[in-house]
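Feature request disguised as a bug report, sorry. It would help if multi-protein outputs had a clear separator. Right now it looks like this:
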Amino acid sequence: MAVSSPPEPPKDRIRQASVLATASSIGLALVIAIFLGAAGGWWLDNFLGTRPWCFVIGLLLGVVAGYRNVYVLAMRLEKSQEKDKKDAP
């Protein structure tokens, strides 16, 4: 009795999983950037005694960085979709 290897998943499923992983990371990238900016500002406020200015600046920088991350991930997702359309028969 010959042992056969398990069938490989279709390429479409692999592409779908990749797109789903990128899309699901968009929200996480936004939240993490905002949290890190606010936490860094809060820590700096406690260290320097400048409450609430560093927190506000850190929060704003976190929001900007978060939206930049969303933009970069969205562009990556769009390029992936365009490549899939080109490769499709």
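(second protein starts here, but nothing in the output says so)
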Amino acid sequence: MPFSIAMKELLRTTDPTIIPFATALLEAEGIEAFALDVHMSALAIVPQRLVVSDQNLFLARAILRDNGVPLHE
């Protein structure tokens, strides 16, 4: 899926373990996710963000909530 499709922010965190965990959960369900600001988060003041396509946002939120991942609302 091209990145040019409307993307929505799913979560934002400074915890370096959340993004890989959330990405793995989504990929297991066939939802492509993109991590943003990964290298900037080394500064510890810039959070990483995870985005998904607009059409997958509802399902992605449900998957992460069901697995206890804190979401950006």
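Even a blank line would do. Unrelated, but nice: The helical segments are 18-28, 57-66.
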